[in-house]
Amino acid sequence: MAYPRSFIEEIKNRVSVSDIVGQKVKLTRRGREFVGLSPFKNERTPSFTVNDEKQFYHCFSTGKHGTVFDFLMETEGLGFPEAVERLAARAGIQVPAQDPRMVEKEEKNASLIDICEMASVYFKTRLGGAAGREAFDYLVKRGLDDTLIQSFGLGYAPGDRVGLVKHLKDQGVADKDIIEAGLAVQPEGRSDLIDRFRNRVIFPITDSRDRVIAFGGRALEASVPAKYLNSPETPLFHKGRVLYNFAKARQSAFDTKTLLVVEGYMDVIGLARGGFNNAVASLGTAVTEEQISLLWRLVQEPVLCLDGDEAGLRAAYRVIDRALPLLKPGYSLRFAVLPQGKDPDDLVREGGAEAFNNVLERANSLIDMLWERELAYAPYDTPERRAAFSDRLRKAVRQIEHIDVRKFYGEEIKKRLDELFAPANRANRGPQANGGQFYGSNYGGGYSRQRGGGKFYKFKSGASAEARRSALASGAVMLPPREAMIMLAFIRHSNQLSTHLSQLEKLDFVTDDLKSLRDAIVDAISHNAPLDSGGLKGHLIGIGYENLMTRLEQLPDARMLVFVRPESDPEDVVSGWLDAVELQHRLITLTAEKREAETDLASDTTQENFERLMAIENEISTLESKTLN
C-alpha cells in the first residue's frame, strides 16, 4: 500500500537509524556520526557510517546507502510494508487506516493464520503423544533430536479422518474457514469434512514473518500415492511465492552472506543439523520468478544445490531460463551440483560439514551453466551446427532485460565462442564436438573453456523449455516410429509402466518433441500421485501437448504393435516396452559411435578405421530392421 509521506517522516523522526543499525553493528561515535564495520562485507577497517541528523547510513566499501527502512530491507529481507509495520510498532505509531476492502482482507488473513497456528499446536502435541510414536521414531531415524524437532515445529497428523477437524470445531472454527485454511476437504455430495493430512509427519510452512500459513506432510505408509503432500493454494499460501524456512534462514544468510536453496524440508533440516542454518527449500517445485526475487532480498548470489542426475540438471536449466530476464548488476545465481545419488542430508550425515562445503566451493556461475547447457545440447562439428550453437546462446542472452548485464553477457559469450572455434581448438575439441554430451574436468575427459575454476559433472541436456514448445507448436518434425511408440505405450499403459519411470527418464530421443514429452511425463509422475492412462493423458493435453498426442495416436504402428495396443496383456506390455527401450538405448549408443568412427576415418583413412565404421553401420542396419515386438 501507499503510505502518507507525513507518516513515513514521523517514523524516521521517532526511530533513530543508529538504534536500529546498532542491533546488528557495533557502532562508535565519531563527532556527529557513528562508525563501524560494514554489515555487508567482511572488513578490518571501519567503512560504515550512520548519521542520525541526516537519517541515513552509508557503506563506503560497498556503496550501499539508505534510510532506516532500507537497512531493515537489506539486512532482514523484509519488504517495504513489513519494514514500515516493524518500525511503526517500535515507534508506537498506528499505521494509517487502509482501504476498507484491504482491511477486510487482512482481517480474514489474520483469522486464517490463527487457525493455522491452532493446527500447528495440535500437530506438535500429537507428535509428543503415544499416537505419534511412529512419526517420532521416523524423525529420530533420520538423525533429528528434540532440539531440531522443536526448532522447526515438527508435528504429526494422526490417521483419524476427523481428528483435526473435530479439534478446530471444538475451538469454534467454522467449516468454511477450516477448508479455506487448506486443512480439510469436503467430499463431493457430502456435508462432513475430512482432515487433509492423515498419518503424516508435519512440517509447518511459515511466511517471511515466521507465521504459520500452510503445512507439508510426509506419509508414513509406503502404500500412500503421494509421499509428500503440501497444503493447497489458499489466501495465505501460494506455493510459487513461498520458500520453506525463509524467516529462520534470514539472519544466518545475512551473517554468512550465503543462502542455500535445496529441494525439500528434510534437506533444510539435515543441513541445520550440520550447522548450515542458511538453507531454504523451494517446496519441490522448480524455482519461480517470485522465489528468485525473495532469494535476492537476502543475498545477491544464492546457491542452488542440485541433484547430480539428469533430472536435477534439467531443473537447473529451467531456473536459468526464468532467471535470465531478472538479472541485474550484482544479482545472479550459482549452482552447486551434488554427487549423483546424494542429497544434502546424505552428504552432511556421511561426511560432515566439510563434505558439503567442498561441493559449495565448486559452485558454478549462471553463465557457466548456460554455456555448458548449450554445449551439451547437440554436436557442433559443422559450420551449420556451430552457427546453431552460437544462435542458441545469443537468444538466451537476449532474454536479459538489464542493458548492462546483457552487454557483458554478450561480450563474454563472444569471447568464449572465439576461443572455442579458434583453429587450434577445433582440431583438439574432444568428444563433445561430435555428440551432445559433455564430460567435465571431474571425469578426466573432454574439453571445456571454464571460467573461475568451475567444475562440471557429466550430464546430458535437452532443449530449453521455449525451444521445445516452439517445436511442439509447429508440428512439422517427423516422429521416428520406434521412439513415438515407446512414448505412446507409456502413456496408454502408465499403470503398468510407471514403475519403470527411471528408464524412461534416462532414454534419449532424436526429436525435441519427444524429449519434451518425456520430461513432462517424468515431472507429472514424479510430483503427483500415480496417474492412470486417462489422468496422464488429460494432464498432458492440459499443459499444451494435445497436438503431439493426436499425432502419436494417428501413427500407423499405434494399432500394429502388441505392447502399444490399449487392450494388450500387462505382461506383454511391460516386456515389449522394455525390449523397445533396450533397442533404443543400443541404437543411440551406436549412432554416437558411428559419428566418432566417421571422424576417425576422416582424420586417418586406415583399413582398420574403415572396417570399424562398416561394422557399426551393419549393426545399426540389423537393429533397425527388427520389429519392436
Automatic annotation (TrEMBL):
**Biological process terms in GO annotation:** DNA replication, synthesis of primer
EC class: transferase
- Please name one Pfam family that this protein belongs to: DNAG_N
Q: Does the keyword Zinc-finger apply?
A: yes
Q: Which residues cross the membrane?
A: none
Q: What is its EC number?
A: 2.7.7.101
Q: Where is the Toprim domain?
A: 257-339
Q: Which InterPro entries match?
A: DNA_primase_core_N_sf, DNA_primase_DnaG, DNA_primase_Znf_CHC2, DnaG_bac, DNAG_N, DnaG_primase, TOPRIM_DnaG_bac, TOPRIM_dom
Q: Which GO terms describe its cellular component?
A: cytoplasm; DNA-directed RNA polymerase complex; primosome complex
Cofactors required: Zn(2+)
Keyword vocabulary terms for this entry: DNA replication, DNA-binding, DNA-directed RNA polymerase, Magnesium, Metal-binding, Nucleotidyltransferase, Primosome, Transcription, Transferase, Zinc, Zinc-finger
The keyword Cell membrane is assigned to this record: no
Q: Which reaction does it catalyse?
A: ssDNA + n NTP = ssDNA/pppN(pN)n-1 hybrid + (n-1) diphosphate
Q: What detail does the entry give on cofactor binding? A: Binds 1 zinc ion per monomer.
| PROSITE patterns in alphabetical order | TOPRIM
State the PANTHER family in the record: DNA PRIMASE (PTHR30313:SF2)
Description of how the protein assembles with itself and partners: Monomer. Interacts with DnaB.
What NCBIfam families would the database entry show?
dnaG (TIGR01391)
Functionally, this protein is described as follows:
RNA polymerase that catalyzes the synthesis of short RNA molecules used as primers for DNA polymerase during DNA replication.
> What is stated as this protein's family in its record?
Belongs to the DnaG primase family.
- The name this protein carries in UniProt is DNA primase
Which lineage ranks, top first, belong to the organism behind this chain? Bacteria, Pseudomonadati, Pseudomonadota, Alphaproteobacteria, PS1 clade
The primary gene name is dnaG
